[in-house]
Amino acid sequence: MEQRVQVLGCKGFKGDVEGVTYDSTTLYVVLPVSKRAGTEAGYNVKEVKFGKEEEFQKMKGLPFPIVAELDLEINTKGIECFGFKAIGPVQQEKKG
After folding, report:
1. In terms of Cα–Cα distance, which of 33, 25, 20, 22 is closest to 9?
2. How much is the pTM?
């Protein structure tokens, strides 16, 4: 499912930790909290996996936070991203 969201940033990691090889990118995505969350309201940040560390290399220079269109899938691993398209900067609310 494609969804337009606010992305606060990302991290990438490629390497070995205690004999286990890792190669991943994680996006920090702003999502609304569950309507069933009795002790939480508004929005929170969800970590969403997005491919290998090479994806981080492609996006590390973006001017976060940004609005992006993500191709998301909900599956047994949680929420995974299979496509990323930067739309533009987050529009700040004007106070006054």
Report:
1. 25
2. 0.88
Q: DSSP class of residue 20?
A: E
Overall number of domains in the chain: 1
The verdict on residue 94 lying in a domain is no
Q: What is the mean pLDDT of the chain?
A: 93
Domain range for residue 62?
Answer: 2-89
Residue 96 lies in a domain: no
- CA 81 – CA 70 distance, rounded (Å): 6
The token pair at 54 is: 């090479």
Q: What integer is the mean pLDDT of 17-34?
A: 95
- Residue 73 inside a domain? The answer is yes
